[in-house]
Amino acid sequence: MSLTISEEQATRKELQANFKLSGLTVDQVAADLQTTPDYVDAVLELRVSRIEDPWILRNYLNAAIQAQKQHPIPYSRLNGSPLRHWFLNQGRIRRGSLAD
After folding, report:
1. Is the pTM here over 0.85, yes or no?
2. Integer angstrom CA distances of residue 82 from 17, 23, 28, 79
3. At what angle are helices 53-67 and 5-22 packed, to 10 degrees?
4. d(CA 82, CA 89)
5. Domains of the chain by residue range
6. Which mean pLDDT values do the consecutive 10-residue runs of the chain (100 residues) have?
7. How distant is the alpha carbon of residue 70 from its chain centre?
8. Who contacts 10 (Cβ-Cβ below 8 Å, separation ≥6)?
């Protein structure tokens, strides 16, 4: 899924807003998603090596926010089910890990 520059900017803001809303630390997210804090920061900035990683982070943040009885900020591009995107590795998304 290719994003325009404005779509990338909006998606970064949405991920970062939901990260803030979750109340989690980068270290907590990294531990839960089996990666490093630096890579979590990279995903928040959409500097990823795997296109599924923003979806994994989105799903994780949404679940954390919903567990607190709150509603995530809507996403403009990372919306709906990733299943509708044939090119995404669905197994990777289901595993919910940012590890290689």
Report:
1. yes
2. 20, 25, 24, 8
3. 30
4. 9
5. 5-95
6. 86 98 98 97 95 94 98 91 77 89
7. 17
8. 76, 77
